[in-house]
Amino acid sequence: MLMSNTPSLENYWMPFTANRQFKAAPRLLAAAKGMYYTDVDGAQVLDGTAGLWCVNAGHGREKIADAVARQLMTMDYAPSFQMGHPIVFDFAEKLAARAPGGKEAGLTKVFFTGSGSESVDTALKIAIAYQRSIGQGTRTRVIGRERGYHGVGFGGISVGGLVNNRRVFPLLPGVDHLRHTHDPVRNSFVKGLPEYGADLADDLERLVALHGAETIAAVIVEPVAGSTGVLLPPKGYLERLRAISKKHGILLIFDEVITGFGRLGTPFAVDYFGVVPDLVTTAKGLTNGALPMGAVFASEAVYEAMMNGPESQIELFHGYTYSGHPAACAAGLATLEVYEEEGLLTRAADLADHWQDAMHGLKGLPNIVDIRTIGLVAGIELSSRPEAAGARGYDIFVDCFNKGLLVRVTGDTIALSPPLIVEKQQIDTMVSMLGDAIKRAA
Ligand SMILES: Cc1ncc(COP(=O)(O)O)c(C=O)c1O
């Protein structure tokens, strides 16, 4: 046992967890290094999910830990309202030098947050405030997409499109949704981007016709939808969304909380697809998951438009106690160095073919209805058991864990997104372990 005094499980209210079920049969992780977790009983668990899509450089990176420790002893915390500290400016400058789409895309203004959810709410608020600052104050509506996941703030669940995250809560007024792009009849088992569905971007025209462009501030999408079960954009879809949003003066927000920092084999999805939005939300891989932090990249045009009025005026009444936290900045700076030294922001591109072939090798196993991959992400969709949506996926998740593989499950789709340091042989191990679990769950 790595944990000598096992604590009571009673007091911690666990997030996105069936608390009573978990506490009856807990899965407790105690240590992590490289590609592996170690559980409290000392068993090794291969990390097929980079923690929660965030530990892109693998676990236990000394460079990051050392930088954080040094920063905490130098200056643990400093306020960021009407105050600053050099490391946050340094981090913003270094991020801007590697901004989504490269410097020429102009997404070089960085607003720090504490998480992906905060990044999403920040981006939505920036979009609405920007529209007002350019004399478009009637544009307060924000558009999301069915099956989207944008975190758990009220803004994020409102533009999000996952029913379980929405049904219990009141939502922002004035929100509408594009249809999702999942078309299993025409696109199943396709390698690469789906052929069919670019025209679904025309849904934005439909919403403009319904609400009036002058009421719409922004549209937000995940370039590759992750949490709903890995949905890839159809060929030409994002380009079309960009063209329509631009035509109507609607800001386009890409939520890159998952796709940012190398997941697709390029630094950002903006680079992968060559489509430049106005705002990009990030978190997770920003600090390799070592400390909580998010960042919104805003275009220079958006930022400059907000820098009006008297110089003594606060331009955006928004920010968090932990915006630009010094220790998180130190983690982020060290993370960027690790990514660069090891070429991790493009490593997924070298592995993508092997990854794709390995995952598609599962085709034909019981109940698999689709396999989707891009970069180092995979979604393996299984048919649901009658009257028990999600049960098969959950059983496979638990079975894999007990055998030493961490996968992620949403509904009956298994998602894999390992640290970007993964080796080919570890990919093969993942596929073989997952395949065995899928057979056992048949
Ligand atoms: C696309 C996307 N946006 C936002 C979030 C929310 O991030 P966080 O959990 O850090 O608030 C997530 C988390 O998975 C995400 O995948």
UniProtKB/TrEMBL annotation:
KW Nucleus (keyword) present: no
GO MF annotation terms: adenosylmethionine-8-amino-7-oxononanoate transaminase activity; pyridoxal phosphate binding
Keyword Transferase attributed: yes
Top-level taxon of the source organism: Bacteria
InterPro entries (UniProt xref): Aminotrans_3, Aminotrans_3_PPA_site, PyrdxlP-dep_Trfase, PyrdxlP-dep_Trfase_major, PyrdxlP-dep_Trfase_small
Cofactors that this protein relies on: pyridoxal 5'-phosphate
Family membership noted in the UniProt record: Belongs to the class-III pyridoxal-phosphate-dependent aminotransferase family.
Identification of the protein by name: Aspartate aminotransferase family protein
